[in-house]
Amino acid sequence: MLLAVDCGNTNIVMSVFDGDTICCQWRLETKRPQPDNTYLDVLTRQLVKISCTPQDIDGCVMASVVPEITPYLSDFATNVLGVMPVIIGTPGVTLALEIDIDNSAEVGADRLVNAVAVAHLGHVPAIVVDFGTATTFDIVRAAQTDKYKACYAGGVISPGVHRSSEALALAAAQLPQISVDQFDAHLPVLGKSTVSAMRSGVLWGYVGLVEGILARLEAEAGYGFTKIATGGLAPVFAPHLPMITSMEPDLTVKGLKQIYDMNNPKVQ
């Protein structure tokens, strides 16, 4: 069984694969590094639900955008699970992906993993809209050589929904903190109260942001893209964005599995 770890700025998503099937998945808040026994206790509780134990884990792959926590996750895999993790961005780990930007070291590991997943699913050319801590837009197009399946061609990073709404409440003394959850499809644009006006600003403001950036990316490229939504808040916003082609909540996890398979001789 394979443990796939996606360490983001807000949450650590851990998924266990049995073959190509995700048999369990859970989230931990990305606060600070945790001791090995904390990760082990959570893993054990999750595996019990599917009649398995940590001893059944024989592989691990991880992507992290939080450098402070990466060594702790790596040590957990090595010292507790007894497996050598495949860590995205470390020397020798291949992505089979062309990277066409000024400095490839600047790209978040999760964004590259999403590009690998999109290429594997055959959706190129595509724009991946990831509704996470930040709202990101990443272009994946055909590679210029036969050596690679696809090319990561750059992207756009916008402030995330949660952080924007939190910042608004903190900056304005008379504005409350609102929850970001499912919105009525017919939510009026014109608010009749402070809360309804803020909810409108969050929903339709981000819908407008996504629509505008997608339109500009296509106009700049001169052709259309498959548009894929992913990330924790994708189910909140994608239903209000008819131009979104599909929603792939497990896109990063699927990319991690694909990268593990490419880098593990036992599964070649």
Write up what this structure looks like.
This protein is of the alpha/beta class and 268 residues long. It has two domains: 2-87, ATPase, nucleotide binding domain (Nucleotidyltransferase, domain 5), CATH 3.30.420; 97-254, Nucleotidyltransferase, domain 5, CATH 3.30.420.40. 35% of the residues lie in helices and 25% in strands. It is built from seven helices and eleven strands. The protein has helices spanning 36-48, 70-81, 109-121, 161-171, 194-221, 234-237, 251-263, and strands at 2-7, 11-18, 21-29, 59-64, 86-87, 97-99, 126-131, 134-142, 150-159, 226-230, 246-247. Strands 6-9-8-7-10-11 form a six-stranded mixed beta sheet, with helices on both faces. Strands 3-2-1-4-5 form a five-stranded mixed beta sheet, sandwiched between helices. A hairpin with a 2-residue loop joins strand 7 (126-131) and strand 8. The longest helix has 28 residues, at 194-221. The radius of gyration is 20 Å and the shape is globular. The two termini are 16 Å apart. 38% of the residues are buried.
Task: Write a brief caption for the model.
The chain contains 7 helices and 11 strands. The protein has helices spanning 36-48, 70-81, 109-121, 161-171, 194-221, 234-237, 251-263, and strands at residues 2-7, 11-18, 21-29, 59-64, 86-87, 97-99, 126-131, 134-142, 150-159, 226-230, 246-247. A hairpin with a 2-residue loop joins strand 7 (126-131) and strand 8.
